[in-house]
Write a structure and sequence with these properties.
Blueprint (H helix, E strand, L loop, with lengths): L2 H8 L5 E2 L3 E6 L2 E11 L2 E6 L10 E8 L4 E13 L2 E9 L1 H15 L2 H10 L11
Antiparallel strand pairs: 1-3, 2-3, 2-5, 3-4, 4-7, 5-6, 6-7
Length: 132
C-alpha cells in the first residue's frame, strides 16, 4: 500500500479547495507555496521553487486572507511528500486562526451536518490500521 493511499484511507476530514496567498516558515526561511486545499486538521500545498521538505519536519503555514488583513497561522508537521505536493498535519492554532479556519471550512463545505460531524472528530484520537 502506498503512503498516499494510506493517508487517504485515514482521512476523516473533508478537504476543501481554497485559493489564497500562502507561505510556510521553516526557521528563518519563508517559502511561498500554492495552497491546494485545507481541512480542520491540515492542508495540502505545492512547492513552487524547488524547495525540499521532509516528512516529520516542523513548519508554520500562513494563509493570507482578506488582502493580507487576516492571517491563519498553523503550526504544522509534514505528514507526507509526493513530488512537489506536501501534506501538512496541523499541530497548533491560535484562537483567531482556529476561528477563521472553522468559518472558512464551514462555508466551503456547504453541509452543516457534515461540518458538525467533523468538529466532533477533532477531539478524538486517530486510530491507524495495524500492518499485516
Amino acid at each position: 500500500m502506498s503512503e498516499t493511499s494510506t493517508a487517504s484511507e485515514r482521512r476523516r476530514f473533508t478537504r476543501v479547495p481554497f485559493d489564497t496567498q500562502a507561505q510556510i516558515t521553516r526557521g528563518d526561511q519563508v517559502i511561498k507555496v500554492i495552497l491546494l486545499d485545507l481541512c480542520l486538521q491540515g492542508a495540502l500545498i505545492e512547492l513552487v521553487n524547488g524547495e525540499i521538505l521532509n516528512r516529520g519536519e516542523q513548519v508554520r503555514l500562513e494563509l493570507l486572507l482578506d488582502g493580507l488583513e487576516t492571517v491563519i497561522s498553523m503550526e504544522s508537521e509534514v505528514a507526507y511528500v509526493q513530488g512537489k505536493n506536501i501534506g501538512l498535519r496541523c499541530r497548533a492554532l491560535d484562537l483567531d486562526s482556529i476561528t477563521h479556519l472553522r468559518r472558512l471550512v464551514e462555508l466551503n463545505l456547504g453541509d452543516a451536518e457534515l461540518f458538525q460531524r467533523e468538529i466532533a472528530l477533532l477531539g478524538q484520537p486517530i486510530v491507524l490500521p495495524v500492518p499485516t
